[in-house]
Here is the input.
Amino acid sequence: MAILPTLSGPADLKALDAARLPELCAEIRDTIIHTVADTGGHLGSSLGVVELAVVLHRLLDSPTDHIVWDTGHQAYAHKLLTGRLDIFTTLRQLGGMGGFPRRGESPHDVFDGGHAGTGISIGEGLALARDVAGTTSRVAVVVGDAALMTGLSFEALNDVGERGTRLVIVLNDNEMSISPTVGAMSRYLSRIKLSRTWRDSRRAYDDAVKRIPLVGETAHEWSLRLRAAVVDFAQPGRLFEDLGITYIGPVDGHDLVGLEATFERAFQAMERPVLVHVRTRKGRGYRPAEADKVSFHGAALPPMRVVDGTADGTAGDGEATPSDAQRAAERRKPRTYTAILSDELLRIGHEDPRVVTITAGMPTGTGLARFGATFPGRMYDVGIAEQHAVTLATGLALGGMRPFVALYSTFLQRAFDQVVHDVCQNDAPVVLGIDRAGLVGEDGTSHQGMFTLATQRQLPNLVIASPRDEQQLRRLLRTAFTQDRPFALHYPRDPGFDVPEEQPDPIPVGTGERLRAGSEVLVVGFGPIVARGLEVADRLAEDGWSVEVIDARFAKPLDRELILAGARGKRLVVTLEESAIPGGFGSAVLELLEEHRLADPALRDVPVQRVGIPAERFVDHGSVSDLRRTIGLDAAGIHQQVASTLELAGLRPGTPASPTVARSA
Here is the structure.
């Protein structure tokens, strides 16, 4: 009889015979693999922590005790163990289960995650709140080896060690091999350091040595140095010990018996913070994911064909061989903006040896891996350290280089101060490649690239541009490298439109393009949403309206004359953007028109409707097409919004505008 369907929550797991735990782990892996094959998701990281999730939930009493999953993309096993098997097939689908922990989904999800490096700070906050309240809840934070390298994690580790905050930090080491195991001595020291006898005797010894007349403090200092030297020789983790955190490990993350014994002692010994270093294998149980950790990390997975016996708990027989139909579909699909940018960046790199690139732990996702392979020494992967990436780029620019920093829009949020203080204040010629601008889909609230444009509009010296198609992307990238000032280039995760290749001549900064003439309605868009604007113009034309369409290309500086000329005498101006409406591109157009209304009678009564992503709430997970349909940003939804505004204003094709029309809708 299958075990997983019988578990309604972690309490049921505690009653399970330990001999059946490997069987349960195999069921969890099988469920994850078959589900993710259909829905997409973060496969490799979740497969690697199955045993870890099982052991933590057997030893802790969630949700009274707290398990914090830093980033959260490795929490699929946690979700299955906390009563969500019935909805697991809806993973990352519109209205279904989220791909990251979500408090609104389960009381076992401690916080809404998605960005790396936040877990230790959250965990310490929970532990300090426990201490203030005088309760006895236990806190465990699972943090990956890459996330541990973030500045936020180091700040939190320093504070945890200084305060002696009682919590267990689980270092899930699945890729970077921070330090190798050195065998029996390491395991022996781990057991000793967790024993109460060791802790009590160490305190007694230290106190006794300090009381030796005249030489006590000196003898104690030398004693500490000798103790550290012995530990360093036999066991890694000195950094954590120096911070005041007891280091245990490395421990085999797939050894259920060893894991349970180690964590049982760690929770018993939690008088001070403890870090347990657990070695796991990313993609465990699915051979293609074990062999290709990069491709099977992210949510956009290679085509998967799952065969029987895949999740046997050791090394599965699943294949990633695409079918003929899948191969044909891939051939028909236009290339993504990221792939097109990668090609053009290589060409520019050959032409200009000053061009260097920077990524924050995402060389493959941002398309910079090829640049690094082609130009060794000219691509810098700084790990999950977006703040450092941006300031490093400033230093490179001040040193005469032409840096291109590729970051996902959602992660660039973390480096806002560096963009302001370092890049823009120094007017440094840094090109910010803002990938995944706009809706990104199934990763949900933490990953939608909807806030960056509004935050950047206020910054002096910064040029902001976005292409309507992949060939405009090539031209704008060339434009960026002709500038001696900061340049932000926004582009989406989407595939392009497969438009014919053209000569990528630079575009004069601040110039838009009129794509269609019209006399009654002006549609002006920023970015790939312009294509939907053209579709909307066709639909409005069928309704009898004469519609002009402008591709702004630049949100800062605007093509003021082109937009003002297009708006004069119009019955309605519609702005389009796939970003948050407040303070965004539409606001820039509205501000421009307001600036000229009093002096220009032809603009005085022209209303403006801003169409974009509503900012009253975060946008949840689902396919990009589903999300656009849900919030009215597909062509049909935009047409409906505009048609409703025209009807509300009492406007009809060919009739005079109503003098009572509101100026901003």
Summary: Residues 10 and 57 are 6 Å apart (CA to CA). The mean pLDDT is 85.
